[in-house]
Structure formats: C-alpha cells, structure tokens
Design goal:
Length: about 70
C-alpha cells in the first residue's frame, strides 16, 4: 500500500486561523466601528487594495448623498 504524501500547506487550517484572529479583533464592534475598521484597514494584496479603494469611493458618495437627503444607491 502506498503512503499518503504529507501536506505542505493546509488551506482549511490556514483559513480557520485567519478567521479566528479576525473574529477576536472585531468582536464587540458596532456596525459603524466595523465600517471604520474596514475602511482604514491596510490590505497587502493588490486586488484587495483596488476593491477597498472602490468600496471607499462608493461609500463616500453614498454617505454624501445620504447627508444631502438623498437615498444611498443600492
């Protein structure tokens, strides 16, 4: 019988560690605190950086529309 090769990287274990770390970090935050945390978080991945930048621009325009009495675009 052939032996099973050992894993060099366990994706599920890695994902669980990251999720658990983030859960502890944001535990107890209000919705507004969570939004602020997401907007000010530094992303190292270039794709996440671009997505965060677009989300911030979209959020800023929605915030300004809401403060002007308009409804945020969905």
């Amino acid at each position: 019988m052939m032996s099973k090769p050992s894993k060099k990287f366990d994706c599920v274990l890695s994902m669980r560690k990251v999720r658990d770390k983030l859960s502890v970090e944001i535990e107890g935050m209000s919705y507004d605190e969570l939004l602020k945390w997401l907007r000010t978080h530094e992303y190292t991945d270039p794709l996440l950086q671009r997505l965060a930048k677009k989300a911030a621009q979209h959020g800023d325009s929605a915030d300004s529309r809401a403060s002007e009495g308009g409804s945020p675009r969905r």
